[in-house]
């Protein structure tokens, strides 16, 4: 039967499926179909699909035997997939256990169910977890043709940012020198290196850097990746005027590192600055902070002002793509 589907290239299939699932747009009575290099993901309401995704009519196979969590619960639970883990965010223990049981008994290809037990905390941005089903907090996550080994109990990683990471990575050219100042396990570093860039990633979390080195090896880019454990402010003097591209994905406190970013920037650099601000003025504080740090040494040109996602009531996670051109 012909149904509305989002059509994407195979390597973007899982990230797109997650994005549509978060928006409540997956049509669960139909199976996702693969035809050559294209993946067709059935959707419930084609008019609600984000404008950057392409909706087509496709003869999708009707789901016959796959049992989903909603079939067992009688209602649609909220969860996200990270590799072979299912992650939920429930305060009520009984509700959390019911959802975990439905996920575990369903036909989803998962090896564990985790419940968030704390907010992100500390310098390493980790959180506590309740392991409700399975036994491991380690997994391999795949997005846009790259794979990342990680352990959510010891590193920070958000699958929700896959589309944003891809947006940045597609701007990278093979001759670039890129620097991720808060690299984690490498979700920016690895795909930038896969596009041919030379990339340095730093992070204060030594476990994350160990995973970054392993992920560089797994993805065949270890010759283009330098992973450094430590505070970027201490590393920066060795790489002054080095970076053609800088990623600053530390939205609660990136402004504290702008002087360091400017010292790392080459004569013509692109800065991706992530911030969390009130919805009434989401971009202005970050832009003012960048100008204060970079001018008059650099001419500052904001190329993109982009809202990544809603972070909390009346707060948004945003990114500024900014060109820094050294003034003669």
Q: What's the mean pLDDT score? A: 94
Strand content: 25-35%
Q: What is the ordering of alpha helices and beta strands? A: EHEEEHEEHEEEEHEHEHEHEHEHEE
Tally of distinct domains: 3
CATH architecture of the largest domain: 3-Layer(aba) Sandwich
Largest sheet, if any? 7 strands, mixed
- Based on secondary structure, the structural category is alpha/beta
Tags for this model:
seven-stranded mixed beta sheet, Alpha-Beta Plaits, 328 residues, single chain, GMP Synthetase, Chain A, domain 3, four-stranded antiparallel beta sheet, Rossmann fold, alpha/beta
Overall description:
The mean pLDDT is 94. The chain has 3 domains: 2-59, 2-Layer Sandwich (Alpha-Beta Plaits), CATH 3.30.70.2580; 69-136, Met-10+ protein-like domains (GMP Synthetase, Chain A, domain 3, 2-Layer Sandwich); 156-326, Rossmann fold (3-Layer(aba) Sandwich), CATH 3.40.50. It is of the alpha/beta class. Helices cover 23% and strands 34% of the residues. 38% of the residues are buried. Helix 5 links the parallel strand 11 and strand 12. It is built from 9 helices and 17 strands. It has helices at 13-22, 69-73, 93-105, 162-169, 189-194, 206-218, 232-235, 258-264, 284-294, and strands at 2-9, 33-35, 38-42, 54-59, 80-82, 85-88, 112-116, 129-133, 138-143, 146-151, 177-180, 198-203, 225-229, 243-248, 265-278, 298-312, 315-326. This is tRNA (Guanine37-N1)-methyltransferase. It is an enzyme of class 2 (transferase). InterPro entries: MeTrfase_TRM5/TYW2 (IPR030382), SAM-dependent_MTases_sf (IPR029063), TRM5-TYW2-like_MTfase (IPR056743), TRM5/TYW2-like_N (IPR056744), Trm5a/b_N (IPR040601). Its EC number is 2.1.1.228.
